[in-house]
Structures are given as C-alpha cells and as structure tokens.
Design a protein that fits this description.
Elements: H1 2-17, E1 23-24, E2 32-37, H2 43-48, H3 52-59, E3 62-67, E4 69-70, E5 73-74, H4 77-86, E6 100-101, E7 106-107, E8 110-111, H5 112-120, E9 127-129, H6 132-140, H7 150-157, E10 161-165, E11 199-200, E12 202-204, E13 210-212, E14 220-222, H8 224-235, E15 241-246, H9 249-256, H10 262-285, E16 292-297, E17 308-314, E18 322-324, E19 333-335, H11 339-346, E20 361-363, H12 370-407, H13 414-437, H14 447-471, H15 475-493, H16 519-540, H17 542-560, H18 568-585, H19 592-614, H20 623-632, H21 636-651, H22 654-677, H23 693-711, H24 717-735
Parallel strand pairs: 2-15, 2-16, 3-19, 10-12, 10-15
Antiparallel strand pairs: 1-20, 3-17, 4-5, 6-9, 7-8, 9-11, 13-14, 16-17, 18-20
C-alpha cells in the first residue's frame, strides 16, 4: 500500500515541479498607459475583417481572450467598466446606470454642477458619473463585494493622471444643443477610471465628441478629429498617466442592430470596425513603444459569440506571447478584474489586496497560430454550452430508465435482466467518455458526431469492464468507478486539459473556472472516490481499508493543492466526507467529538494548502494565498465575507442563502438523529467490526452531498451530479452480491 502511494505522490511532485512559470508584466515600469476599448470584438471577427492597424499591433503584442461574464450574467458595458475600475466583479445600479457628464452639461434640466453639489457636497472638476454612490452601495452588499472606483483612488494616491474619452449615446434624432432622452446615455466607460467619488479628472464624454452622420447608427458617430484632439491634450500630461479611449461607434452599432435588417446591421458593424481600426492606428502613432504601454481590450462580448472577447498588451519588455493571470492559470485567458492590477503593475504600483483580480502574465506563444488557437477555444466553449441542454437531460433520462428497470427487474424478460449489468457498466463509462470526447478531432461543432463518440467510448469501457467482471466477479464495478477517479486525477495533475469545455468540466466562456477542478467534476470525483474506497474495502478487507485511506489522501491532495485543483469548496467537502467514511471503515463510532475533529481537520488541511500557496512565487499564487494572508493578518471580515458570498452565489441572495443554510443544518441534524436511532452513528452505536463498506459509502456520500451543497457555489447541481456515479453502482449491486459489490 505504502509503495504505490509514495510513487503516485512522487509523480505529482515531478509534474508540479516541472511547470514553467510565466513572465510577469510591468518590468520596467512605464510612464503612460493607453487603454483602447473595442466593445464587442472577438478574435474570429478580427480574423475575418480587414483591420491592418489591429493586425499589426497583435503581431507585436501579447494576446488573449478576456472573460466578460459577471457571475452568472452577461455583463452590460457599465458592468464591465465598473469591474475594470474595481478590480473585482461589479454590477451597475438601475438608476442613472450609464450617465456620466462633462462639467458644462445639463441633465434632466439641471446643470452638472448643481447635481454634484447635491450628491457630493462639492463640485470637483472632471467627468462625473452620477450613480457612483448607488454603485458603491449596491456592490458592497452584492455577492462580489466590489468597491467601484478603487483603481481610480489608487492611481490618484500614486499621483497618476486619469482621463476617459468616450461617448456611446444611443438616441435617434437628438441634436447637439439638446440633451439626449433619458435612457439613451451610454457613457459607462467613465467608471473604469473614476475614483470612489465618481469623478475622472480628465477627458470628455460629452456630445461634443459626436458629429452628424445620417448613415451611421442613430445618425451619429464619433468625430475622429475631436477624439484625437482630446487624446493629445491628455497624453501630453507631464507625469504618469492612464488614458482610456473607447471606439464608441462599435457600441452604437451593436445597440442599433435590433432596429435594422440583419444585413444592414452587419454593414453598420463592419463600418464601425473600420473606423475603430483607423482610430487605433492614429492613437498608436502618438505613443512611444519605449516608454508607453498600450492595452487593447473588449470589455463586452458580441451577442452572437460566447462571452469571450479580445485583449492585447504591448509594453516594454513584454514579448508576443499569450496572456494569462493567476486568476485563470490558463494560457490565453484573463478576466476583466485583472485589468486594474495590470495597469497598476505596469506603472510600478502594488495592487491592493482587497481586489479579486491579479496582474496579467505572459506565457510563451506555443507552436500554433495564437489567434487561431483562441478562436478554436471560443468555438469549443460555445459548443459545450450548447450541449448542456441536450446531454444532461439525456443522461438523466437514461439513469431514470436504468433505475426503473432495476426496481421492476422481476417483471423483465430474462434477456432484459441480463442486460441490466452491461447497461450499468455503460452508464459508468459515460463520465470518462464526456471528458475524452472533446479531444477527438472533428467533434467540436457537430452534436451528432459528439454523441456518437461519447457512446462509443463509453461502450468501449463497458466492454472492458464487463470482460474483467466475467473473469473476476465484482472487479468490473471497481474498474468502472476507478476509471472516473484515475482519469480526473491524472488530468488535473497534467494541467486539466480534459476539463476545458467538457460537459462536466467548465466552460471558458462561463468563466467560473479556468484551471483545476470545476464544481461538477468535483462532485463526480468525490462521489466516485467514496464509492471506490468502499468497494476496495469490501473486496480486500483490512488491506482494502488501507487502500481506501491512501486513496482518500491522494484525492484530497489532487483536489486541494494550489498547483493542482486549488478547490477550497472541494476540500471543505471531501475532508469530512472521506474522514467519516474512514471512521466507519475502521469500526469507529461517529459522535459529536468525532464530528468536531473532522471539522478541525478540514480547517487545518485548507490552511495547509493556503500556506503552501503563500510560499510560491507571487505570479503563481491562487486565491488560496489570499485566504492565508487574511488569516495571518487576522482580517476575519474578508474571510467571512468570502464564505457569505459563496453562499449567495449558490442560492441567489442573502435571505435565500441563510434559509438554505438553516434547511441544510436541519436536514443534516435529522439524518444524524435517524442514523443514531438505527444504531448506525452516535456514541451509543454498537461497536462494529472493521470494514463496513455499505455504511461507509452511505455516510461518506451523505456528508459529501450536504457539505458540498453549502461549500460550493453550484447549489443543488453538486449533489444531483453525484447521482450519475451513484445510480449505476446501486444497479450493479442489485443483481447479485459478490466481492466488489456493496452488500
């Protein structure tokens, strides 16, 4: 037992130690940062269009896809810009959502100065975002806890000048000397560089940036000359500065698309892209590659594409590779929240610990064409998201039929009863097949081909496990369950490539995760591990209990080590579940003292992984390092806020989260009382002989489902997904008892 365990641990250490570290940005610090916003642009669009300036920029820049999703929702432009300015996912208020004003403008018949005097008690100079107070209050109580304007405050404290030049107002028929209608303001770009007071010291977002054009969306477009003039004035600032320029015609074209025919919408979009490319070229001519950094970013994705958009960075010392960050840990992908710390790092400033994002890093480009690689990733993400409504119901329907046939097996004909076991083994092969199918060439984009490949792969595993079972009765079940555990463990150890855009992995477009294990994979991994441990104990007795214990340890390491799974919720669920199963397997009673011990062990393991993460290079650290830093600095507020936000994300709000927590506690207590009354658990339970696999499986799965429901942010999807592994094993156990089948 000890030798295989040490061998596997050694392999993990070799894999981890061989991972190359990407290069950080920001060395040496730059003097100025230009952020060019191209809303709604994807790499597929860049590849198809004739955009010479952007193409030339991409050749000398590090590039990637930026995730534009905010939690479970598609981001609006103002959501995205608020996120950039906060360094943490943010949401826009419903009042004055994108209303930013120049000092000399009128809003609702009232001057900007009068509005600011009422809302701030003073009239600062610069662009004013009117909903700054509402945005701050809303995000403070949201599941993300963002502080809109934090980037602006940090830049201001460092003496860095800020300016925004943008106007995406969308109102048909208004004229320059009349304020646009309510609801047509689209100036959320100001929030990217505003302070917490809602003020951007420089730039302009007023109607003076627009010119009449009857053929443009809403009859208006940016005045190229005025945008450049405003930029030159801000770019000439004598000290350090950050200037954001939005190619606002792209937003206007997107807003107008629903009012025109599809063909005309495409033509308007193409024209806006050409103007944006020309603007980018003129802006780049006014920058110095030796001292200036230029970031091109699309804060929102197009409506017809997955929620991934373009980003590119050119800066002194930055090679033309692929962008990534410690929040994604995957080459070619960053998040909106990473923009703020990247800007600060480029200027030589330390990003605050309060933010969610981490600075961009640059990884080698690899042998493939970078743009084509990102396009393929986006296509795969879109394909995966389209598969979910098809594959998941199909699997559920299959499990229902299988379970129903098992319950009614006495009514089946002999052939039907004989087919139950192969059908259950086929069901066990579905999970590994869904992870492997995405690696088969030609599958992406073809639902029928994908389904056929999944069935063939599952059938191949079922045939192998059935043959094993015929030779060694009961080993087919063990082999089928082990296939899921081993495949996921090896995948995570070697970079989790199979998790990407897999049905039970994670979508890069949804962006809940980019590396390690997602919640659905954790659910399958954990449930299969509990069952496999119980099956081993059932077949091999005392030696099997040792094998099960070693298996539990290895799986927790894979799940929780920061360089591997880095899944806090998974560890919080697995440690008590595996611990409870181990206690039952060794004949120990589980009472309040044992439950408290498991809780302490869980906290110790999580903190151990967190402190391991702190000891790693800053560019490689994950969210685990922040957890350790909160503990070391005794910042308990952020620590408990994170737990609260995880509950809110899972159940949809503070009130629902609290009720769900109470309900879960009641169900858990009720289950404990029932099992205690039946003599399964509790201090008065009769001492069992060692090796009680059925009880171990029941207890382990119950704890995993209960804690997993609360500790992860996927709500009931976690315990529900466990059934995909549990149901086939229950079916296999019904036909006949044998070694390897839980009694």
């Amino acid at each position: 037992m000890r030798r295989p365990l040490l061998l596997l641990l050694g392999v993990l250490l070799v894999v981890v130690g061989g991972c190359a570290s990407p290069e950080p940005v920001g060395e040496p610090p730059v003097r100025r940062v230009l952020v060019v916003s191209l809303p709604g642009v994807s790499w597929a669009e860049v590849q198809e269009a004739d955009l010479p300036n952007l193409d030339a920029f991409v050749e000398e820049a590090a590039i990637g896809d930026i995730s534009t999703r905010i939690g479970r929702r598609r981001a609006s432009s103002t959501d995205a810009y608020l996120t950039i300015g906060a360094g943490t996912r943010s949401i826009a208020p419903s009042v004055d959502v994108a209303v930013a004003l120049d000092p000399d403008e009128i809003y609702a018949g009232v001057s900007t100065a009068d509005i600011l005097q009422r809302r701030l008690g003073e009239v600062p100079q610069g662009v004013a975002y009117l909903a700054a107070g509402a945005a701050g209050d809303l995000n403070e109580s949201s599941s993300f806890g963002a502080e809109p304007g934090l980037l602006g405050d940090q830049l201001s404290a460092a003496g860095v000048h800020r300016a925004v030049i943008a106007n995406a107002d969308a109102a048909e028929g208004y004229v320059s000397d009349v304020a646009p209608p309510d609801g047509s303001y689209a100036r959320g770009a100001a929030t990217a560089l505003m302070g917490t007071d809602g003020i951007v010291p420089g730039g302009t977002v007023g109607r003076g940036l627009l010119r009449d054009d009857p053929l443009a969306p809403f009859g208006w477009r940016l005045d190229h000359a005025k945008v450049l003039s405003a930029f030159e004035e801000e770019w000439a600032w004598p000290g350090e500065s950050v200037v954001l320029v939005e190619a606002s015609d792209l937003s206007r074209a997107a807003a107008y698309g629903g009012r025109s025919t599809p063909r005309q919408a495409r033509a308007l979009r193409d024209e806006a892209l050409l103007r944006a490319d020309a603007l980018l070229g003129d802006l780049l001519e006014r920058t110095d590659p030796e001292t200036d950094a230029v970031m091109v970013v699309s804060p929102v994705a197009g409506r017809s594409t997955p929620e991934l958009a373009i980003t590119a960075l050119r800066s002194p010392g930055v090679e033309p590779g692929l962008l990534r960050s410690p929040t994604t840990r995957r080459d070619g992908y960053v998040q909106l929240a990473d923009v703020a710390p990247t800007i600060l790092t480029l200027l030589g400033e330390e990003p605050p610990e309060e933010i969610e994002g981490r600075p961009f890093e640059v990884a080698p480009p690899g042998a493939d064409d970078r743009v084509e690689r990102l396009i393929e990733g986006s296509r795969a993400a879109g394909f995966r998201d389209g598969l979910m409504p098809i594959v998941v119901p199909a699997i559920i329907a299959g499990l229902v039929v299988l379970a129903g046939a098992t319950v009614l097996r006495h009514r089946l004909k002999p052939l039907g009863r004989r087919l139950l076991r192969p059908a259950a083994l086929l069901a066990l092969g579905i999970v590994p097949a869904t992870f492997l199918a995405g690696q088969v060439p030609g599958v992406t984009g073809h639902t029928a081909v994908y389904a056929a490949v999944v069935v063939l792969l599952a059938a191949a595993q079922a045939a192998l496990t059935f043959a094993i079972d015929q030779r060694w009765l009961g080993m087919g079940t063990i082999t089928g369950v082990a296939a899921t555990v081993v495949l996921i463990a090896l995948d995570v150890a070697f970079g989790a490539a199979l998790q990407v855009n897999a049905v039970f992995g994670y979508s890069l477009a949804v962006a809940g995760r980019f590396a390690g294990l997602g919640n659905l994979a954790f659910s399958l991994f954990g449930a299969a591990t509990v069952l496999l441990g119980a099956l081993l104990a059932d077949r091999y007795g005392k030696r099997g209990v040792g094998l099960a214990t070693g298996l539990f340890v290895v799986v927790v390491l894979v799940e929780g080590l920061p360089m591997l799974g880095a899944d806090v919720g998974g560890v919080v669920s697995m440690v008590p579940a595996f611990g409870a199963a181990s206690l039952v397997l060794t004949g120990r009673r589980i009472g309040p003292r044992e439950a408290a011990g498991l809780a302490v062990a869980t906290a110790v393991v999580v903190l151990l992984f967190a402190f391991i993460d702190v000891g790693r290079a800053p560019g490689s650290q994950t969210h685990l390092a922040r957890l350790a830093e909160h503990v070391l600095d005794q910042r308990w507020g952020p620590f408990f806020d994170n737990l609260s936000r995880r509950l809110q994300a899972s159940f949809g709000g503070t009130d629902l989260a609290l009720w769900a927590l109470v309900l879960t506690a009641i169900i858990g207590a009720g289950a404990y009382l029932v099992l205690t009354a039946r003599g399964v658990l509790g201090p008065r339970a009769p001492k069992r002989e060692r090796n009680a696999p059925r009880e171990a499986a029941i207890v382990g799965l119950a704890v995993l489902a209960t804690v997993g429901l609360v500790a992860n942010d996927s709500s009931v999807a976690v315990p529900a997904t466990m059934l995909i592994v549990v149901v086939p094993v229950l079916v296999l156990r019904q036909r006949r008892r044998a070694p390897g089948e839980l009694a």
